[in-house]
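[job 0417] fold request received: Bifunctional NAD(P)H-hydrate repair enzyme
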Amino acid sequence: MKKILQGAQVKELDAKHISISGQSSQELMEVAALGFVDWYVAQDQFKEYGVLIFVGAGNNGGDGLAIARILTNQGVQVSVVPCFTDPDKLSLDASANWELLPKSVQLLDFNELKYEGDLVLIDCYLGVGLTGTLRESSIPIIDYINEFSGPVVSVDIPSGLPSETIHQGLAVRADYTVTFAFPKLSLLLPENAEYVGELVLVDIGIEEETSKVFDSNFYYLEEKDIPALHKSFHRFSYKGDYGKILIAGGSPGKMGALILCAKSALRTGTGLVTCHIEDSERDIIQTAVPEAMASWGLIANLEFYDSVGIGPGWGQDGRVHLLTQILEEFKSPVVVDADGLNILARSKELLELVPKNSILTPHIGEFSRLVGPAKNHLERLEMAKEFSVTNELILVLKGANTVISLPDGRQIFNSSGTKYMATGGSGDVLTGMITSYLGQGYEPENAAICGVYHHGLAGELAGAKKRKGLIASDLIEAIPETYNLLDIS
Ligand SMILES: NC(=O)C1=CN([C@@H]2O[C@H](COP(=O)(O)OP(=O)(O)OC[C@H]3O[C@@H](n4cnc5c(N)ncnc54)[C@H](O)[C@@H]3O)[C@@H](O)[C@H]2O)[C@@H](O)CC1
Ligand SMILES: Nc1ncnc2c1ncn2[C@@H]1O[C@H](COP(=O)(O)OP(=O)(O)O)[C@@H](O)[C@H]1O
Ligand SMILES: [K+]
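[job 0417] inference complete; emitting structure tokens
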């Protein structure tokens, strides 16, 4: 899994890679520019567009000059806007690429900009070399980029955005940010989403091993990390091998949450799902999910189950007794979501009963009730870490880049998912998936990671077809497709 680097670490990593690989910094820049162009030319929405590249005096500008050359050689109409006064004062690698710029590339003076036709603006003005407050001279350039009528793609980082903190001042508001090698922390903070747009990570061949020495507890979860975490089952497997799970949830008027959770667990691969419900709701669950069984009253034989999921649509009134029974009698990790979390928030003494390595899945509102309000996401991350470490629990903080906090202090940012998942019931689907993996015998850490990643991937697959018409049931239907895509059997 890749580490998420901050500030100076990003530059140190480049330097370390250069010394280990024997590659020159100019060669690395070329790899980055080629990686960007590969992504760019694969974007159908830009097919008929020319490009306007804003380049600064540092290596981010150097990337832009290399991109200008490569795109020109591929037949794209390229214009470059040099955002510096003296070409003799460029960084070494930017200078080398300035010399290599084809004569056919049109150079445009920022103060006399006029252009025609459909253009994509590529922002290579400032990268991670930004220090301190933005200079006065940068303001009109960034203002211009932000007023540009066409799509804006920032290279490495939106110009003006610092690499590790929440930003409130002026910076480029990109539609896409194509960043190199390792994601920078600032690109993953929800407060910065308006600058970053859609985030794309381009590999430039820097080994994960090279980043190991850097002190960072933040990790970035990608598709390549997933297959090795899955358990595989043999030809003679029977339904018991795939887990017997219990889901305690649902209440009159909120049975949908439980239904989604149960269906999702079945599609994730669980052998046997039992829903623990109120007597009055038997017909609903048995009709909506015929594959699931139902139980009611006190839970007779908790030891029968391999995992337990608690909370979707459960309500809070009269549930404390049942929650206490589960937490006291079920000795293995459980999954707690929604009203299960709300009860824990109200009765904090119950936290001590939650089996170690259990997985709690709050969204930001539930987090605030359970752990406390935070003034921003960085503070929330710190609180999440402390909560996980202190209570020896796994905390899945849901959102655009869901963060999994582990009891050893690591925090893993998920890369899969889409904005179309912001729809009622998505979280119930996630609870079903994580409970399912836990029941299939996955280590709790892997159950949380696989659940979160596949859930996001299901969202991407369903979102590509349904866009804002996506509903939580579509996520469930897409779970099997995620197994096909990743070749998980
Ligand atoms: N070998 C490498 O190190 C690689 C670097 N890469 C690129 O290099 C970038 C980093 O390059 P650099 O370190 O040269 O820095 P940048 O190009 O990010 O920024 C340096 C420029 O920003 C200006 N600047 C700094 N602070 C400012 C402020 N407060 N207001 C206005 N202007 C300011 C400086 O005068 C200088 O012109 C990365 O973001 C990435 O795009 C990529 O080519 C990948 C390989
Ligand atoms: N903008 C987004 N991008 C990616 N994933 C999202 C986004 N918004 C929500 N999600 C995901 O959808 C799920 C929503 O869960 P939750 O807030 O509990 O919803 P509900 O209570 O309606 O089920 C979470 O897994 C979250 O990570
Ligand atoms: K940039």
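[job 0417] notes: The pocket of adenosine-5'-diphosphate (ligand 2) is lined by residues 363, 398-400, 402, 417-419, 421-422, 424-428, 430, 455 (CB under 6 Å). The first helix runs from residue 8 to 21.
[job 0417] exit 0
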